[in-house]
Amino acid sequence: MIKVVVAGALGKMGQESCKAVLNAEGMELVGAMDCKEFHGSIGSFLGKPEVNIQISNNIEQVLLELKPDVLIDFTRPGVVQENIELALKHGVRPVIGTTGMAASEIEGFIKSASEKKIGGLIVPNFAIGALLMIKFATEAAKYFPNVEIIELHHDQKMDAPSGTALKTAESIASVRGNMSQGMPSEFEKIDGARGGDFEGMKIHSIRLPGFVAHQEVIFGGTGQTLSIRHDSIARESFMPGLILAVRKVMSLDHMVYGLENILFE
Ligand SMILES: NC(=O)C1=CN([C@@H]2O[C@H](COP(=O)(O)OP(=O)(O)OC[C@H]3O[C@@H](n4cnc5c(N)ncnc54)[C@H](OP(=O)(O)O)[C@@H]3O)[C@@H](O)[C@H]2O)C=CC1
Ligand SMILES: O=C(O)C1=N[C@H](C(=O)O)C[C@H](O)C1
């Protein structure tokens, strides 16, 4: 049995993750933590009263007492870094869904997990369709280097651009390099009108109620455009990838950034 603790268990992704772990063969949900005040078990919160796991607000105590194999984290930027440090300190494999960390922080965790020989995964997007979108977009960029990314999310999202958009831009940049696009003399009449810049690629972030998680990668060539789009219309879309990640992390002895490195290897 793989023993799993979920951090951010009362949040949108945390709740789905607890349900997915409870339903997964060979996995046991041993702990749930969140900073929200809730007096009761995660089972009573999820409408599964038979699951009698109290919600803790002390991650280190949970890791020390329950000795899980894996920590799933869906909290928020600023919290996730501390949780990864504590997991690595106590020999627990982190499977991280929380986005918004700086590239230098991710690099630091990859280094420290390798030194400690602890497996870990930092995954900006667990949806298999999103991983395919990134793969197809990276292939297309070899032929259509002019590209812009539009990501659309619910209006409760803290970080912009999304972790998925950054991962897509990094992957596209790895095949086309840093290049300038558009008119050198273009100017913005409203700051930010042309989006954020990643190595010459524009990223546009839309936040509105009604969306879950969506991204379109648009390529432009002479007399033609190509659009590659992925839509997560429900948070269940992330769960098969998350469960796969929990299984795979058990055989890793280093930290991997991106589930595509496991799925398409
Ligand atoms: N990798 C992927 O496939 C996906 C990643 N994400 C990412 O996951 C993260 C969470 O998203 P989402 O579930 O929508 O967000 P939510 O705000 O719904 O959930 C986050 C939860 O973490 C809690 N929390 C905040 N601080 C702490 C803390 N110090 N200790 C424990 N719990 C804490 C929050 O409590 P409170 O509300 O009281 O602050 C909340 O219950 C985001 O970074 C998002 O970008 C989202 C979807 C898919
Ligand atoms: O906050 C979200 O909701 C999501 N966050 C991740 C990201 O930043 O890419 C993954 C997905 O887009 C949903």
From TrEMBL:
Example GO molecular function: oxidoreductase activity, acting on CH or CH2 groups, NAD or NADP as acceptor
Q: Which GO terms describe its biological process?
A: diaminopimelate biosynthetic process; lysine biosynthetic process via diaminopimelate
Keywords in alphabetical order: Amino-acid biosynthesis, Cytoplasm, Diaminopimelate biosynthesis, Lysine biosynthesis, NAD, NADP, Oxidoreductase
Q: Specify the Dihydrodipicolinate reductase N-terminal domain's residue ranges.
A: 2-126
What chemistry does it catalyse, as a reaction equation?
A: (S)-2,3,4,5-tetrahydrodipicolinate + NADP(+) + H2O = (2S,4S)-4-hydroxy-2,3,4,5-tetrahydrodipicolinate + NADPH + H(+); (S)-2,3,4,5-tetrahydrodipicolinate + NAD(+) + H2O = (2S,4S)-4-hydroxy-2,3,4,5-tetrahydrodipicolinate + NADH + H(+)
Query: What are the positions of the active site?
Result: 153, 157
Binding of NAD(+) occurs at 8-13, 37, 97-99, 123-126
Residues annotated as binding (S)-2,3,4,5-tetrahydrodipicolinate are 154, 163-164
Q: Which residues make up the binding site for NADP(+)?
A: 48
Q: In which compartments does the protein localize?
A: Cytoplasm
Domain of life (superkingdom): Bacteria
- EC number from the UniProt entry: 1.17.1.8
* InterPro entries, per the entry: DapB_C, DapB_N, DapB_N_CS, DHDPR_bac, NAD(P)-bd_dom_sf
- The top EC class is oxidoreductase
What start and end residues bound the annotated signal peptide?
A: none
Location of the Dihydrodipicolinate reductase C-terminal domain: 129-263
Question: Sorted alphabetically, which SUPFAM superfamilies does this protein's record hold?
Answer: Glyceraldehyde-3-phosphate dehydrogenase-like, C-terminal domain (SSF55347), NAD(P)-binding Rossmann-fold domains (SSF51735)
Q: In which pathway does it act?
A: Amino-acid biosynthesis; L-lysine biosynthesis via DAP pathway; (S)-tetrahydrodipicolinate from L-aspartate: step 4/4
- Quote the cellular component terms of the Gene Ontology held in the record: cytosol
> PANTHER family, alphabetically?
4-HYDROXY-TETRAHYDRODIPICOLINATE REDUCTASE 1, CHLOROPLASTIC-RELATED, DIHYDRODIPICOLINATE REDUCTASE
Q: What does this protein do?
A: Catalyzes the conversion of 4-hydroxy-tetrahydrodipicolinate (HTPA) to tetrahydrodipicolinate.
Task: Name the family the entry cites.
Answer: Belongs to the DapB family.
> Quaternary structure?
Homotetramer.
Q: What is this protein called?
A: 4-hydroxy-tetrahydrodipicolinate reductase
Please tell me the species this chain comes from: Desulforamulus reducens (strain ATCC BAA-1160 / DSM 100696 / MI-1)
